[in-house]
Specification:
It is a single chain. With 282 residues, this protein is an alpha/beta fold. It has two domains: 5-64, TATA-Binding Protein; 73-237, Nucleotidyltransferase, domain 5 (2-Layer Sandwich), CATH 3.30.420. It has ten helices and eight strands. It has helices at 5-18, 55-64, 98-106, 117-129, 141-153, 158-174, 191-200, 220-244, 261-264, 270-280, and strands at residues 30-36, 39-44, 49-51, 73-80, 89-96, 133-139, 182-187, 208-213. A five-stranded mixed beta sheet has the order 6-5-4-7-8. The protein starts with a helix and ends with a helix.
């Protein structure tokens, strides 16, 4: 896990107040090393922190981690599949309580793009075991293509479709939450269109603060949503591969029977449309 500068300062203060022994760094990348009885903690210059799995170390780490005090729930919304020509588009909105954020930081949650598939699967299963509240909007290729055409006829873009998916996922998640302060963090892609969709979905409320951040993928609620969405995406791609006897991750649209493309691919992608249009012109 990584810690902030404020948390590093709290750790230093705890070290002083507890009289813990500091050890010499073992390499130039280490900023701080504590080795005292059952406590072993190393902080790297990058901000990464590692520790041994003892009650004493866990307790010390827990005491320095900052918590969101202003909100009862912090929601993160993220999408997967927008850039892949194959498979579904999936948007997930996850609702975390302040203590959930601390827990997920401890187990290594981060943006799904930084995880190997084995790590992704392990974290996704851990998240689901926690019975976290989340809702998704999943557009499998056939539905995605129909929706995309509908938006095109209305002179709208892919970002409009994406904003609609986020607004829908957020609205359905909020419907399951009670009263209290709520913050929603969205990984920013098109502020104006997302705002319009959120207003249309009646998501904006005096108790709901909405933040569209260019660094949203570093926020734990967004990272949790991205892990769930990525795991769902990979599972559904596996199912498509098995059903249609293809290997979508390792082939090009030209290698697939054009009649199957509407079931497997996003038809507006140029490498897909070239195959589909080439077949239609024959």
């Amino acid at each position: 896990m990584s810690i902030s500068l404020a948390e590093l300062e709290k750790l230093r203060n705890q070290i002083l107040s507890m009289g813990l022994k500091r050890a010499e760094p073992t390499n130039p990348y280490e900023l701080l090393r504590i080795e005292d009885g059952e406590i072993m903690i190393v902080v790297y210059k990058s901000g990464k922190l590692v520790h041994n799995n003892t009650e004493a170390s866990r307790g010390l780490i827990d005491s320095i981690l900052e918590r969101e005090r202003e909100y009862d729930h912090i929601l993160g919304s993220d999408e997967v599949g927008k850039g892949e020509w194959y498979g579904p588009l999936i948007v997930v909105c996850a609702a975390l309580k302040p203590d959930d954020i601390v827990h997920f930081r401890k187990i290594g949650v981060k943006d799904s793009k930084l995880l190997r598939r084995s790590e992704l699967t392990k974290l996704a299963l851990e998240i689901k075991k926690s019975k976290l509240l989340y809702r998704d909007v999943t557009l499998m290729p056939e539905i995605y293509n129909t929706r995309y055409e509908e938006f095109q006829r209305e002179r709208k873009t892919l970002n409009d479709l994406l904003a609609w998916c986020h607004a829908t996922a957020i609205r359905t998640t909020l419907a399951y939450l009670g009263s209290g302060g709520i913050k929603v963090v969205i990984d920013k892609f098109d502020v104006k269109k997302t705002d319009l969709r959120l207003e249309a979905a009646k998501v904006k409320d005096e108790n709901v603060e909405i933040i569209q951040s260019s660094k949203g993928d570093t926020e734990i609620p967004v990272s949790v949503a991205s892990i769930i969405a990525k795991h769902m995406f990979e599972t559904r791609v596996d199912a498509l591969n098995e059903k249609y006897r293809v290997d979508l991750r390792n082939c090009q649209p030209s290698a697939i029977d054009p009649k199957m493309l509407p079931h497997l691919a996003k038809l507006h992608f140029s490498n897909v449309s070239e195959v589909a249009e080439g077949t239609a012109s024959r």
